[in-house]
Amino acid sequence: MHPNIVAVHAFGHADDTHFLAMEFVVAAPLDAVLRAVHKTPMAELNGRDLWSAVVHHLSAQSASEDTDTPSAAWQSGYLPTMLGLIAQIADALDFANQHGVIHRDVKPANILVRPDGTALLADFGLAKEAARPSMTVTGEFAGTPAYVSPEQATEAKEVNFKTDIYSLGATLYHMIAGRPPFPVQNPPTARVLLEILDRPAQSLL
């Protein structure tokens, strides 16, 4: 197993309920970390602020972990630290792809961050084998609207590893901008998917 992927121990279903049993990880979901740090202008942030957000989340959850001192992973600026986290998830996705697996739901909520600076890709509940057709249990839309690729937005039957690259890019956009490239509106799914297909994301420059 790859060091940046949360291990899956078992999956299946009991009656009408499907389940996925994963490794227990003491870590903070990236979406919670982003909500905490983006209360401060990005120009004023650094890696230690990200570490503090991770530690604060774990403390609020009463999770035990050695969080006394930030490791070397947190000693850079905000952007280099974020890029370091993204690089770890990119490695995990490359490993998954080499083994014929497409995640299909890469987003901040499915990236877990440990206090030592390790990033972990979690929740393969929507993953599919590259050689098999894409289908959910219920036949409904698969993925999270704000981060899906155009091919997922059109529910194309042939979805390959590029969809995970797009979603990782959308996640990095959120990390920099403080919001997804196509923020969810009301009603969410239909409008966001149309925006993904019809217009480019707002430039960060």
Explain how this protein is built:
The protein has 205 residues and is α+β, with helices and mostly antiparallel strands. The protein is 36% helix and 12% strand. The chain is built from six helices and seven strands; from the N terminus they run E-E-E-H-H-H-E-E-E-E-H-H-H. The chain has helices at residues 30-37, 47-60, 78-98, 150-153, 162-177, 188-198; strands at 8-14, 17-22, 28-29, 101-102, 111-113, 119-121, 128-129. The strands form three sheets. The chain has a three-stranded antiparallel β-sheet. It has a two-stranded antiparallel sheet with strand order 1-2. Strands 4-7 form a two-stranded antiparallel sheet. Helix 1 crosses helix 2, helix 2 packs across helix 3 (78-98) and helix 3 (78-98) packs antiparallel against helix 5 (162-177). The protein is globular and about 50 Å long.
What's a quick, concise take on this entry?
The chain has 205 residues and is α+β, with helices and mostly antiparallel strands. Helix content is 36%, strand content 12%.
Biggest sheet details? 3 strands, antiparallel
| Count of runs of 4 or more consecutive helical residues | 6
- Mean pLDDT across residues: 82
Tell me the fraction of residues in β-strands, as a range: 5-15%
Query: N-to-C terminal Cα separation, in Å?
Result: 38 Å
Characterize the overall form. Answer: globular
* Proportion in helices: 25-40%
Structural class: alpha+beta
Please state how the strands of the largest beta sheet are arranged side by side: 3-5-6
Q: Are there runs of 5+ residues with pLDDT below 50, and where?
A: 129-139
Radius of gyration: 17 Å
The overall strand count is 7
Order of helices and strands: EEEHHHEEEEHHH
